[in-house]
Amino acid sequence: MVEIEVVYAAVDRQALLAVTMPVGTSLRAAVLASGIAAQFPELVLADCPVGIFGKVVADADVRVVQPGDRIEIYRPLLADPKEVRRLRAAKAAMARRKNS
């Protein structure tokens, strides 16, 4: 058996579950078996990107859990971070020109 954590942070709340999985369990199977879906029924766990300690795992159906893994379930991005930074920089430039 392997002890791991499964983590998800919604906009308004978060959950961290400590679970024990059989050796050889894939990340996706561990997430599905963790019971986190009961706390966040809006999640489609079969499609959510997952990672370990902040690094996205490309194939969660193949990667096997290791002792101490912290499996993180990621939310989809609402906006492209590059676009948000570009808009923020343009707004700041416009504000500087107004104040000059």
TrEMBL record:
Record-linked InterPro entries: Mopterin_synth/thiamin_S_b, RnfH, RnfH_sf
SUPFAM superfamilies (alphabetical): MoaD/ThiS
Record-linked Pfam families: Ub-RnfH
Family membership noted in the UniProt record: Belongs to the UPF0125 (RnfH) family.
Protein name: UPF0125 protein FRT59_25040
